[in-house]
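README: folding subset

This subset contains proteins for which both the sequence and a predicted structure token string are available. Records are stored as plain text. Below is the entry for HAT C-terminal dimerisation domain-containing protein (714 residues), shown exactly as it appears on disk.
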Amino acid sequence: MPQVTKFKRAWLSRRDDNGDELNLWLKQGSKETTFQCTLCKTSDLDCANQEYSAIYQHMNTKNHKANKNSLKDNSLLAIRTLKPQTVSIANDNNSGILVIDNSQNSTLLPFNDQITKAEIVWALTVARRGFTYNSCDGIGEVFKSMFPDSKIAQQFNMQSKKISYVMSHGIGPYFHRELVKKIKSREKFVLCIDEQTNNQSKKQLDLLVKFWSNDDGLVVTRYYKSILLGHAQASVLQSAICDAFKTDGINLKRLLMLGRDNPSVNITLENLIDQKLKKLGSGLLFLGSCNLHVVHNGFKAGLSSTSWYVENVCTDIYSWFKQSPARKEDLADVINDFGDVVEKTLLYFTITRWVLLGKVISRVLELWDPLNEYFLNFLPRIQKSQLNKNEKYEKIKSNLTSNVVKIRLQFVLFLCENIFDRFLTWFQQEEPLIHLLYRELSELFYLILAQFLKYDFIVGKSGGDLCDIDFKLNEKQLNSKNIRIGICKNITYFFIFVLIETLSFKGERTRKQLNALTQQEREDFFKDIRNIYHGISKYFKLNLPLKNSFIRDLQILHPSMKNAQDVDQIIRVARGVPDLLIDNEIDYLRNEWLAYCIEVIDPKWIIKNKQTDSSGHEHITYHRIDFYWNNIFEITTTNGRPKYPVLTKLIKNILIISHGNADVERGFSINENIISSNRSLLSQLSINSLRTTYDTVKNSNGGYSHNVCACLTI
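--- output ---
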């Protein structure tokens, strides 16, 4: 009986008669005694008896040689990436699979598959760049004209109807299925939601998910789905979300928390989902609404406690030029006469982003002198008759000639630039920052109180203790001479003990303007300032989560908090996460934390880059917190097993907790690009497919369509 021969991996390194490596088309079959030719798309071929001769016979068949020659007549498929990967043309079960893989190896494809690959890359580009489907009509003819020597270009065909079908029924659903697989493989994920009215005059509910990606070794935020709605009551939203999970086979118990802003409908939605989870023996983690919105609304509450209406001052000036190219040109000419003024464009104030009012005011103040020249001298000289009884002009003129208005603008700019901007800029990042949220909110509130309260009443206080301060008591107030109304530009502060010292250097920018005010105007100004600080403090006291012990305990995730004395803190965190760790795992967690506390940490896990400038100042760039913890997770025992399995499970599902809703809101600009005014007929399926594909390409290497790794059925 002849000996049975198994497929040998050494055969892959052999070469054919033309000198080409066999691994370009040869692979083991579904059994150990078979092989497959991915070039000819064969099923299993037997090599049990003939050994390598069976492969040699196949490579000399007429069909194989024809396929090989067709490839030589056309360009080879070779895509580069930073990470070398093993690639294949077909999987073991389906020979009708086209693999677009970012490998440093050259992968040979039959000519027809090369055309399909080119069409797929173009479809990915359409989604990423926001091209309309109709813009693809005739694109094949354009490529033929541009690349007359390319046989692929001559066969390229991607008209509007075809790309619409491919996107909605091929590429988009494929990427969505891949995302669902990743979600289903995780213990927990976070759902971030927000809605807007799109260009179809429909309410579009966008759903994003945050989860730990084992492939990337960090927390990722991915677009999940959009749902178009008419009525958007909480019960409707709950049904839509739960139905989406059910359709995709996602267990609702994997949902850790809801990342949301603060409308009452979202609060009700959160409660409805929690009630549903309670029936399943689980529950949601409640951490309140997006703190970015809380900070914006706190700033708004302060300004609303006065009758300043500085936002209207800026909006009136902006609207004067908005729809008039002639007025814009006249203003530009006036600005040019000043020589040293660079900026010429006024900015628009968005009412939902109150702190961004600072950037609008900054531009108005930069153009203050040219604006005075334009409205007070140029217009009366050129258009005197047209200005008679023009209420908007009279209002703008009154504001520009008012010393009170200017000092109000300078004070609001001080608040934005030196107190609020840093927090909002930092927490709009996509990386996990939940471990820093408590401290940063505490410092923000402390900084507000430090502007108008005596130092003795706030020193040494932080977190929830700040909420217990009665900030309205007269004996605690700074007098008008010492209350902070403006500090010099470009002062940076990082820690609480530095903040007070820094803010003691009161800038002269705002105070110099006080000399131009009457005694009554000065008294009213300081009274309003105190009301603004009180309004912000009152809102923060009621809405900041500084009494939330869970958020406070999450600070332990910071590398500097690696302390055996804080073991109870990590235990409290573990108990606070619904339906994650069982009792035995929490017991193991204590021992793992104690072992982690004596672990020797490589500084490279924390510090990404360190540089010294020409002045001798050191600048340090830190890694993301998930980069640090991923290195901890990879530590093994002497026998090769993970050293911290329970700690790994816990931290992976803590770092995904949302610190704000900026990720969802960034998607609104993507929606406006995809669902533009001339694409108002896009179906929900098309919208989902375009957004899913956009998100996939964006998160591929460099965000380019030709770098996407995909395996698409053809």
